[in-house]
Amino acid sequence: MSYKAIIIDDIEQARTTLKQDLAVYAKDFEVIGEATGVVEGAKLLKNTRPDILFLDIQMQDGSGFDLLDLLPQVDFKIIFITASDAHAIKAFRYAAIDYLMKPIDPDELTEALKKFRESHIDESAKYELLNDRLKNHQKPNERLALHSQDKIQVVEIDTIIRCESSVNYTTFFFKNGDQIVVTRTLKEFEDLLSDQGFFRVHQSHLVNTRQIKEYVKSEGGHLNMKDGSLIPVSVRKRPDVMKMLDAL
Length: 248
Description:
single chain; Rossmann fold; CATH 2.40.50.1020; 5-stranded antiparallel β-sheet; 8 helices; 33% helix; 32% strand
């Protein structure tokens, strides 16, 4: 199977290098069009239907997000390309959207394209969440996209009670009793949710501090959560957990 790709980037050398990388590392991808900016890119996309779009964030006549606002719908996969935009990268991570840093590492490109080939899920919910995060970046992050095996679910962060790891998988536990398993590590979610009131209390456990009922110091130390679950606190984490509870 072959895939049709479009590259939108205002730097000619960046487009050339990406095309060369695709020719070497992804022979099943055919570049069917290029554009140098927002206006040109929007015209191209209105007349061409790619399977995947490689989209630069910052261009001379606007951003990649400005371009997406001009489109009636997004029914193709997007891999964003960025030099260094911390705000955008955080928005990507909350929306579980793929991005590549410039200069593009061939291994990271190969991994992103592998995920593209394996995914057959409608990703429109992710782009809606991304758009919301970018337009309301002054507001706290309230939602998170979770990519499970068969679908993408956008969840309210305050409904999460805790997260538990198992090798490269993370299970989310919710107030209503639901569970969602995603193929990302707990460390990734610790980095993402640490400023949302979540705390790593054990190698395998990340908890929503607002859902802690009590800390029991005996029997090795554990947290009783509001849903009735008992979460162990590691010996190394006990002093930090005490400080965290004192600050609540």
